[in-house]
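Hello, quick one for you while I still have it in my head. No rush at all, and the record is pasted right below.
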Amino acid sequence: MSGMTKLAGLAAVACLVALPGVAGAQSGASVPTQVGPAQASRHAATAYAETHPDSAPAGSNDFDCRPTAEHPRPVLLAHGTDTQAYTDWAAVAPALAADGYCVFVLNYGGDPEKDTYGVGDIVTSAGEFSAFVDQVRSRTGADRVDVIGYSQGATVTRYYINKLGGAQFVDHWIGLASPTYGGVMYGLVPLVRAVPGGEEFVEDTFSVAVREQMEGSDLLRSLNNGADTVPGVQYTTIGSRVDEVIQPSGNIALRDPGAENIVLQDLCPQNLTGHFRMPYDPYVIDIIRTSLDPDAERHASCTTVPLGADIPQVVIDANS
């Protein structure tokens, strides 16, 4: 197989797994304030975001919200790559708000030329998230927060906690489909690295954030060097054995003290939800809710979800 064929193969896979772009993205970070409706699927959220760019999920970014004794810490949500807060959190945010949490979202890592968020350098994005935590703490009066990061958002927020001093302000970190040790993209990442200029091709064609999430990247080595957790923070990962992006799926789990690693199929074997459906699967949303509060009432039962559920629609949305 020629080098160009290998690179073309990577491009094809990335095209399949890339999320739809976001209209109206601004440089850097933004705090969306126009609240949109709750959604039951990524497809519905994507369609709404196309005509209502920079929306906030229902139940989020009410800066008049004050934490209660039952839920004393605001919950901050960080979205994934090449997307935005509304598209990823239109189901989770209203569920947490209904439980009584103050919920906040940020659009980070924006690139106006690519018209999307979550594509910038992860260290810079972590700095943007740090400033957002300060803003939420100041407005709500909370000393500490809980953080949930989906996909790249898990790495951005964990970088903030582990490397930028965020541990003093975060009580519980939850990584949903976290690329903790990166992915090999069905074995294509080693092939890309074998081609001169392969990594640069990934960065130029997709984004620096995609390159930084490849297994063995400098960013991930730096983040995980010594320990992938730091004292004082409760860490939880929630992953799927059939994640379409992070392979091997064991790369989702944290390996050092202070972490709980939850695998969806250990709790519900017939639920084969993968990477893109995770924030919209009702059973997964209950795992998030009970990770934050073990006494939370469960709303969803364990039901069968077929392998590849929602992927055809994700591909259509990404290329429409």
